[in-house]
């Protein structure tokens, strides 16, 4: 970024954050928006100063004083990049080195990064995709001219197709590990575009699945070229969730993260149709079933996942701000390291349940509508789908201090 630049692209900003550079981010949105969702990272110094204060400072000639505590250059941020563009210009007029984040937080939400996972995946190539704005992780597996995507995001469906083609592979399967509550799934978009198999856990039917899918269950295998993904039923985050194994790699979805475990309170039955919010009954829905699902999660972790070899590479469905990428640029860790390092995994059942239900972060924005959409019981346009999933994922219960 040169001194003459007036804006920085979201992709360029992410590259700088990824390198660990010290960056001052000036967020001019309202305080509640900033607190709920903002740009973060190890070297990011984020400050929130609302737009109105800059209007007043411009009149009083005190613009530079507002940001005196921030190191230059400063990156100004708002929702869509318009208000922050004006404020960045105001700062430059006041002698402050400042640029605008092009397209604002909406542009930040479109950053999508791919890295190859350095692990023994039974001879397949595995690529991890991360969305820095939300911490969502997805995976592409390529083997012998075929490819599958695990937990794809609808907003990036075209990207998976292009990347599979780049690998000389045909996309043959789009696989969800569970009914997601934080983002709109891309499995149907990929199935429609590429005639790929649409695979969901069998338990999705009990939750009200309203479209045709190839269902898989515990012990089933999903073929991709010369390799097979093996499904393991892993209830806890949701009742139907299945993790997937490939060689030494465990795609742990929202069951086990690098810094915590899955939250158990997002299983809400979806409406029967877009015009009706009446829901079919469920035994473990929402708050009422969170404690039961937390118990299921404990059993999944201790009776299934922690029984796997210590050198199993855990490739989770999300990462958090405190998590660090490995040498290959991906967010993954050995099961043995997680078992030793996460306090939540050393608790007894009762303590684990109390910890899990007692430390729930705010629920993802619009999660009930996202669940309904992912079950096919509500419909969203591409623009609507992008809007409803803006914000942090909040699918994890962070580990105890």
Automatic annotation (TrEMBL):
Signal sequence interval, chain numbering: none
Q: Please indicate if the UniProt record lists Cytoplasm as a keyword.
A: no
Q: Which Gene3D superfamilies match?
A: Rhodanese-like domain, Ribonuclease Z/Hydroxyacylglutathione hydrolase-like
Compositional bias, Low complexity, is annotated for: 271-283
Domain annotation Rhodanese: ranges = 19-117
Instruction: Give TM regions.
Output: none
Top-level taxon of origin: Archaea
Q: Which GO terms describe its biological process?
A: glutathione metabolic process; hydrogen sulfide metabolic process
The record's region (Disordered) falls at: 269-291
Q: Which keywords does the record carry?
A: Metal-binding
- UniProt cross-references to InterPro entries, sorted A to Z: Metallo-B-lactamas, Mito_Persulfide_Diox, POD-like_MBL-fold, Rhodanese-like_dom, Rhodanese-like_dom_sf, RibonucZ/Hydroxyglut_hydro
**A molecular-function term among this protein's GO annotations:** sulfur dioxygenase activity
Q: What is this protein called?
A: Rhodanese-like domain-containing protein
- Please report the organism this UniProt entry assigns to the protein: Natronoarchaeum mannanilyticum
Lineage from the top down? Archaea, Methanobacteriati, Methanobacteriota, Stenosarchaea group, Halobacteria
């Amino acid at each position: 970024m040169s001194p003459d630049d007036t804006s920085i692209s979201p992709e360029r900003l992410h590259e700088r954050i990824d390198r660990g550079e010290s960056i001052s981010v000036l967020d001019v949105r309202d305080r509640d928006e900033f607190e709920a969702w903002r740009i973060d990272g190890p070297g990011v110094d984020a400050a929130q100063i609302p737009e109105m204060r800059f209007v007043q400072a411009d009149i009083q000639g005190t613009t530079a004083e507002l940001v005196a505590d921030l190191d230059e250059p400063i990156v100004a941020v708002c929702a869509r990049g318009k208000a922050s563009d004006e404020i960045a210009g105001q700062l430059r007029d006041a002698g402050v080195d400042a640029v605008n984040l092009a397209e604002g937080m909406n542009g930040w939400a479109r950053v999508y990064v791919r890295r190859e996972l350095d692990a023994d995946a039974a001879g397949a190539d595995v690529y991890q995709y991360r969305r820095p704005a939300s911490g969502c992780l997805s995976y592409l597996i390529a083997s012998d001219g075929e490819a599958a995507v695990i937990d794809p995001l609808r907003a990036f469906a075209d990207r998976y197709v292009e990347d599979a083609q780049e690998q000389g592979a045909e996309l043959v399967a789009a696989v969800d590990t569970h009914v997601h509550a934080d983002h709109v799934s891309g499995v149907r978009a990929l199935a429609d575009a590429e005639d790929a198999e649409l695979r969901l856990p069998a338990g999705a039917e009990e939750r009200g699945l309203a479209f045709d899918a190839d269902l898989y269950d515990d012990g089933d295998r999903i073929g991709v070229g010369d390799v097979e993904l093996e499904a393991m039923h892993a209830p806890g985050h949701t009742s139907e969730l299945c993790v997937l194994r490939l060689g030494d790699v465990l795609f742990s979805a929202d069951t086990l993260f690098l810094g915590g475990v899955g939250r158990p309170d997002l299983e809400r039955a979806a409406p029967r149709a877009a015009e009706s919010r009446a829901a079919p009954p469920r035994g473990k829905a929402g708050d009422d079933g969170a404690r039961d699902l937390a118990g299921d999660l404990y059993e999944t972790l201790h009776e299934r996942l922690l029984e796997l070899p210590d050198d199993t590479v855990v490739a989770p469905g999300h990462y958090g701000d405190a998590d660090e990428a490995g040498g290959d640029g991906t967010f993954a860790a050995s099961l043995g390291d997680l078992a030793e390092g996460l306090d939540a995994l050393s608790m007894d059942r009762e303590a684990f349940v109390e910890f899990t239900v007692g430390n729930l972060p705010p629920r993802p924005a619009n999660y009930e509508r996202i669940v309904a959409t992912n079950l096919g019981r509500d419909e969203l346009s591409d623009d609507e789908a992008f809007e409803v999933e803006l914000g942090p994922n909040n699918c994890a219960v962070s580990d105890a201090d």
